[in-house]
UniProtKB/TrEMBL annotation:
Residues 142-226, 367-452 form the RCK C-terminal domain. It comes from Methylophaga muralis. This is Trk system potassium uptake protein TrkA. One of its GO terms (cellular component) is plasma membrane. Residues 1-122, 231-347 form the RCK N-terminal domain. GO terms for molecular function: potassium ion transmembrane transporter activity. SUPFAM superfamilies: NAD(P)-binding Rossmann-fold domains, TrkA C-terminal domain-like.
Length: 457
């Protein structure tokens, strides 16, 4: 597929890397030559220096025969105009754009085909807010990924020493929770994936990914965590779009405080929030955090626009007694920097956004894509089409599927029923399958497997 990406920042660069590694013909446009040179050093892509919304720049990038335009510059208006030009002048088949301003997002009619023709709108702030909300609503987990319209979730949890499952085999879960249906998708021990067979004995600090129906997740998490307790007291550092949206989501069911350094902004969000206590101050002010009883806080969420402020304030909050600390970290190098520190969860907006982009780019009928472990692994929801003659999966049992070794089927949504993977289940057309891959490079083989033959088309 021929794809043009507008913007070589964190999202654009990471998207270019994912798509180039999967064999796509990728061109990246940006006004900053240094960013483009950095990408070309390790990727087989074309780059064009220029204004992303200028027709001459798009022509230079090869817009005439491009299959898809992905507009992810930092400017909403440039992204919108570029999509308009791509449609009006060059009939580009598919256009994806990052839109941040809530004023634009509040009017969906603005993005109709006869207005600003954008096929898929990506709102990073909305995606990150959703992600952090899920982490808070489901305590003690490292990741929460939604499938089947959020009827099922794939959750990552670390095994606590002396928890019920420390030293137990996976099949012991059947005795501990006989009424809970689930599947272990993968286990990571010392950063390496190990086969999730029923006889595998779990150890403290193993990272376990399991798939279950949403309402049964809490019961499962409790057997891996020694002192499971729900989160009640939330402290949000940063009153920007994400901080405000997060407070609005949580204030009805949690005790929420938010701190914002800009006095005018603090007053504005205080008027819009009903039960949240809004504080004007510095997120790194230890005395203020102590005064606000940070030691009684269940989750400290650092969501400012500054990586360094997020990292330092989260570390400070942890040192002062906060139970859990989450930090938004935009730069990939900074994410690696905080691994093994007192920050419990590093949230990467780029990785979250890329998953949504990839769901609209992948071959076959891919519904959802989730990037895991900083892009090293992946979980997808994909739909089976065709019949036994035109499909390599329909009419076959799960045992007969020629999946890569790193791939595991977790569950199937058939009409309105969730079936957890068993070797003898025969795949039917229209089935939605959740597939977990511990090796991201195997995604291409899975997508090819689910493509139908020309007879079906």
């Amino acid at each position: 597929m021929k794809i043009i990406i507008l913007g070589a920042g964190q999202v654009g660069g990471s998207t270019a890397e994912s798509l180039a590694n999967e064999g796509n013909d990728v061109t990246v446009i940006d006004q900053n030559p240094a960013l483009l040179e950095r990408l070309q050093e390790h990727l087989d892509i074309r780059t064009v220096v220029g204004h992303a919304a200028h027709p001459s720049t798009l022509l230079k990038a090869g817009i005439k025969d491009t299959d898809m335009l992905i507009a992810v510059t930092h400017n909403d208006e440039i992204n919108m105009i570029a999509c308009q030009i791509a449609s009006s002048l060059f009939n580009t088949p598919k256009k994806l754009a990052r839109i941040r301003a809530t004023d634009y997002l509040a009017y969906p009619a603005l993005f109709a085909l006869d207005a600003v023709p954008i096929d898929v709108i990506i709102s990073p702030e909305q995606l990150v807010t959703d992600y952090i909300t899920h982490l808070i609503e489901q305590p003690e987990v490292l990741q929460v990924l939604t499938f089947f319209g959020d009827r099922a979730r794939l959750v990552a949890v670390k095994v606590d020493a002396e928890s019920i499952m420390d030293g137990k085999a996976i099949h012991d879960l059947l005795d501990i929770l006989p009424k809970v249906q689930m599947r272990i998708a993968a286990i990571f021990r010392n950063e390496s994936a190990i086969p999730p067979g029923g006889k595998i004995t779990l150890q403290a600090d193993d990272e376990v990914f399991f798939l279950a129906e949403k309402h049964q997740i809490s019961e499962l998490v409790k057997v891996f965590k020694k002192d499971y307790q729900p989160y009640q007291r939330i402290f949000i550092a940063g009153g920007g779009q994400i901080g405000k949206q997060l407070a609005q989501r949580l204030e009805k069911s949690h005790n929420v405080k938010i701190i914002e350094h800009n006095e005018t902004r603090a007053r504005i969000i205080a008027e819009d929030l009903h039960k949240t206590l809004v504080l004007h101050g510095d997120v790194g002010d230890a005395n203020l955090l102590k005064e606000e009883n940070i030691h009684k806080t269940d989750v400290f969420c650092a969501v400012t626009n500054d990586d360094e402020a997020n990292i330092l304030s989260a570390m400070l909050a942890k040192r002062l007694g906060a139970r859990k600390t989450f930090s938004i970290i935009s730069k990939a190098s900074h994410v690696e920097l905080v691994e093994g520190t007192s920050i419990d969860i590093a949230v990467s907006p780029a990785q979250i956004t890329i998953g949504t982009l990839l769901a609209h780019i992948r071959r076959g009928d891919v519904i959802t894509v989730h990037s895991l472990r900083q892009g090293a692994a992946e979980a997808i929801e994909i739909v089976a089409h065709g019949d036994k003659q035109t499909s390599k999966v329909v009419g076959r049992t799960l045992a007969e599927l020629k999946l890569p070794k790193s791939a595991t089927v977790g569950a199937i949504l058939r009409k309105d029923k969730i079936l957890f993977a068993e070797k003898n289940i025969v795949i039917e057309t229209g089935d939605h399958l959740v597939i977990f891959l511990t090796e991201q490079q195997d995604v291409d083989d899975v997508e090819k497997l689910f493509q139908v033959g020309f007879e079906f088309l």
